[in-house]
Amino acid sequence: MTSPSIVWLRDDLRLADNPALRAALDRDEPVVVLYVLDEVSPGIRPLGGAAKWWLHGSLASLGERLREKGGELVLRRGPATRVVADVVEDAGAGAVFWNRRYGAAEREVDGGLKETLRGDGIEVASFAASVLFEPWTVRTGSGGPYSVFTPFWKACQALPAPRAPLPEPRDVPGPGSSPASDALDDWGLLPTVPDWAEGLRETWEPGEPAARARLRGFLSDDLDDYDRARDEPAAGATSQLSPRLRWGELSPYTVWHETVAARESGANPGAASRFLSEIGWREFAAHVLFHHPDLATKNLRAEFDAFPWPRLEPSHLEAWQQGRTGVPLVDAGMRELWRTGIMHNRVRMVTASYLIKNLMIDWRRGEEWFWDTLVDADGASNPFNWQWVAGSGADAAPYFRVFNPELQAQKFDPRGSYVREWAPDHAAGDGPEPLVDLKASRAAALRAYEEVKQAAR
C-alpha cells in the first residue's frame, strides 16, 4: 500500500530547484502538492490586494504545469496547522516536506506542525530554499546578528558558496485519487468591483516559465548596464525579478549561479557583482526579520520611539497614495505603483523619504500602503526598507538623510522621461500644487530628528 508524500508549498511556487519537492520524489511514492491560503493563524499577515492578484496567476500557472507532469495542485484555505493535518489524513500520507520560512509567526506554525506530525509517526523535513544563507548561520564575532550590511555581506561571502540549484523534475506522479481541492476562482483573489488590475495584467505574467524567461533576458540584455543605469528609472536596467523571488517562482540559488555563470562568460564583472550585492540586500532583510520579528510594527532602534510625529493629516496621506503631492518625481512613482504594482527602487526611496520627512507621516502608514499595492510585497524587505529610509532600522546611517526629490529627479531623470511617462500633467506644467514647501519641511524633519538624538543621550 502506498503512502503518498505531501509537498506543502508557500513562497516557493516552482518546480525547479525545489528541495521539498525533490525530497518527496526521492521517496518513490505518489506526491500531493498542496498550497494553503492561511490568513487566519495568529500573527500571519493577510496578503495585500496586488499580492493576491499575483498569487492567483502564479498558482494557475503552477497547477497547469503540474498537470502536464502527471500531478495535481491541491488548494485549501484556513489555518495551516489544521488544514495540513486534514490533507495528511485524507491522502493517507506518510511524509510531509516543506521549504523553510523565517518570520516568527510562520516559524511558530511550522514548528508546531512538525512536532504534531512526527508525534503521529509522519516523516517530516524542511529545507533551505528561499535564502542563500539562513539567518542563524551568519553571526558577528561576538555571536550576535548583524545590523550593518557591508560586514554582513562580507561574512556571507566567507561562508561556503551557495549550493547548485536542483533540476526541474521530469514527472510529478500524483496519487490515483487526489484529496479534494478548492477551486482557485472561489478564493476571490482577483479584483472585480472595481477591477483595478488592468495595469498589472499589461505589465506582468506570473508563473515560473515567465520568471525563467525574464532571468535569461536580464542576464543577456540588461546585466552589462546594471551598475551604470540601475538608478535611472527610465532606463529599464533593473532585473524586474523581485516578485519572482518573493513568490519563489525563481530560487535565489538559480539567480546566483546563473549570474555568476554570466560573469564568467564575459558579462561586465562590476555589474554582475553589483547585482549580486542586491541579492545580498534581500538576504540582509531576511536576516534582520529573523532576529527582529516585529519589524513591520516596531522601530528597530528604540530611540526612534521618541520621534515627535505630528497628528496625521489624512488628506496628505491620501494625496501621497494617489500621486497628487505636487512633486513630479514622487507623483510619477506613486502612479507607476498603482498602475503596475511595482516602483523603481530609486523612486521608492524618494517617495518614502517624502512621506516620512516632508509630510512627517509615520513610516508604518507607508509600509502598509506598499504592502497592499506592491506585487513584490515581502514580509522582510518591505518593512526593512521602510525602516531604512526612516532611519529607525538597520544600516540606516546617516539616519537624518532627506532625499530631495527635485535634486533626485535632476540626477536620475535628467531628461524627464520617467516623469513624462507616469505624470504627464507635471511634464506639461499642469500638475497639482505642492502640498508642502520642501525646504521648510526638510528643516522641520531635521529638528524632529535632533529631538530624537537629544532624547537618546
TrEMBL record:
Keywords: Chromophore, FAD, Flavoprotein, Lyase. GO terms for molecular function: deoxyribodipyrimidine photo-lyase activity; DNA binding; FAD binding. Binds 1 FAD per subunit. Its EC number is 4.1.99.3. The keyword Lyase applies. InterPro entries: Crypto/Photolyase_FAD-like_sf, Crypto/Photolyase_N_sf, Cryptochr/Photolyase_FAD-bd, Cryptochrome/DNA_photolyase_1, DNA_photolyase_1_CS_C, DNA_photolyase_N, Rossmann-like_a/b/a_fold. The keyword Zinc does not apply. GO terms for biological process: nucleobase-containing compound metabolic process; response to light stimulus; response to stress. This is Deoxyribodipyrimidine photo-lyase. It comes from Microbacterium limosum. The lineage of its organism: Bacteria, Bacillati, Actinomycetota, Actinomycetes, Micrococcales.
